[in-house]
Inverse folding.
């Protein structure tokens, strides 16, 4: 499988799909116990690999059937030193796991790419700390150093890009962008927001995006929003300024509940897939440049199909 040829800075109104809520699907739909919400250990055994493959093929099929490209994530949101250490991984084993995740994703996407579909293998970097709260706060330089080994593993295995997912404050995001730039990989930064449209750090989305761009000389190819319902950030996007144009993707939650409510939930809230699709369509009508479309917590193939059909 040859590497995908696409300039992430020149997407125009190109539509690329992503998957939905991987970890919530594994926990609530497949009934798995995922310690520390980590999916990457599934790649250690054939059964886990096939489980992940079945999950991702649903979304790859949706994209292929509708004639759009796909950003194929590695299941490595928790595969960093702090979380990996809690799961018993040494630094060497963690690096091997990250490399394996890329080669596994590349092989999974190969049949689709052979048929002419754009499939981007995306090395996923998660926050050092919690995805809903700001903890383990780092400077930009500290974050660059902390995340460098994972990003180098992605590069060495041949990933097409790196995405920082569910970022809660700007300095960690900037550090990841710097590490990706130093490793020669394009980066995408995805922030999560609370019900008031602000990051868990209290930063506005505008300030966070501008801060990362200022600190990195505009290194990220584009920015995204994930792990929040559209109703949480719709009003924020009403603002003026070039920063809105830097947002090229959205991976929303199915539920309109707050992070605190979701964290305490014992049952999945799937929301309304059709309503979610309509919200994406309304967003695309306002901002045609937002073309990387997918889901986060609580979303599955129904949501992604509804989003794609509404927007196309």
């Amino acid at each position: 499988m040859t590497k995908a040829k696409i300039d992430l800075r020149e997407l125009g109104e190109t539509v690329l799909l992503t998957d939905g809520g991987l970890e919530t699907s594994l926990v609530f739909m497949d009934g798995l116990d995922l310690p520390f919400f980590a999916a990457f250990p599934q790649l250690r055994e054939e059964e886990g690999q096939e489980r992940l493959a079945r999950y991702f093929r649903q979304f790859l099929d949706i994209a292929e059937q509708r004639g759009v490209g796909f950003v194929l994530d590695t299941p490595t949101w928790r595969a960093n030193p702090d979380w990996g250490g809690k799961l018993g991984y040494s630094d060497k084993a963690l690096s091997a796991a990250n490399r394996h995740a890329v080669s596994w994703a590349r092989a999974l996407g190969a049949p689709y790419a052979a048929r002419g579909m754009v499939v981007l293998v995306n090395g996923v970097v998660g926050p050092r700390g919690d995805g809903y709260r700001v903890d383990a706060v780092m400077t930009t330089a500290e974050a660059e150093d902390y995340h460098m080994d994972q990003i180098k593993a992605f590069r060495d295995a041949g990933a097409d890009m790196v995405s920082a997912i569910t970022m809660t404050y700007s300095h960690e995001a900037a550090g990841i962008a710097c590490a990706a730039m130093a490793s020669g990989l394009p980066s995408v930064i995805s922030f999560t927001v609370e019900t008031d449209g602000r990051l868990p750090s209290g930063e506005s989305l505008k300030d966070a995006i501008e801060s990362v761009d200022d600190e990195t000389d505009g290194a990220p190819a584009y920015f995204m929003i994930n792990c929040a319902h559209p109703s949480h950030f719709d009003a924020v996007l009403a603002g003026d300024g070039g920063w809105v144009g830097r947002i090229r993707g959205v991976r929303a939650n199915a539920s309109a509940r707050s992070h605190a409510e979701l964290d305490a939930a014992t049952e999945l809230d799937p929301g309304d897939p059709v309503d979610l699709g309509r919200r994406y369509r309304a967003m695309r009508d306002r901002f045609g440049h937002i073309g990387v479309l997918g889901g986060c917590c609580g979303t599955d193939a129904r949501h992604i199909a509804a989003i794609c059909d509404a927007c196309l």
